[in-house]
């Protein structure tokens, strides 16, 4: 029986309050913090996608369509 299996068996026999104390202790010993944990995004979605700080050239809108061939080549693997 592995160490994890032994710990699981022992924890299952404890009352819920004691299980919570053990979990809290493990969090404290491992340096776990709520802010360091990844949030559960199944309900809210991942909100940080695409956020970045960047500066576009002043004439970006004028030349955006010029990039179509280059973008197509990146995704389709075609040479320019």
Query: What string, H for helix and E for strand, traces the elements in order?
Result: HHHH
Helix content: 40-55%
Low-confidence stretches: none
Q: Total strand count, please?
A: 0
Identify the overall geometry. elongated
Question: Which structural class do the helices and strands define?
Answer: mainly alpha
Strand content: under 5%
CA-atom Rg in angstroms: 25 Å
- Euclidean distance between termini CA atoms: 60 Å
Name the average pLDDT: 75
The biggest sheet amounts to: none
Number of helices: 4
Highlighted features:
mainly alpha; single chain; 49% helix; elongated
Q: What topology does this entry show?
A:
Blueprint: H1 3-13, H2 16-30, H3 60-63, H4 68-76
Give an overview in words.
With 80 residues, the chain is mostly helical. The protein has a domain at 1-37. 49% of the residues lie in helices and 0% in strands. It contains 4 helices and no strands. It has helices at 3-13, 16-30, 60-63, 68-76. The termini are far apart. The mean pLDDT is 75.
Concise description?
The protein has 80 residues and is mostly helical. It has helices at 3-13, 16-30, 60-63, 68-76. 49% of the residues lie in helices and 0% in strands.
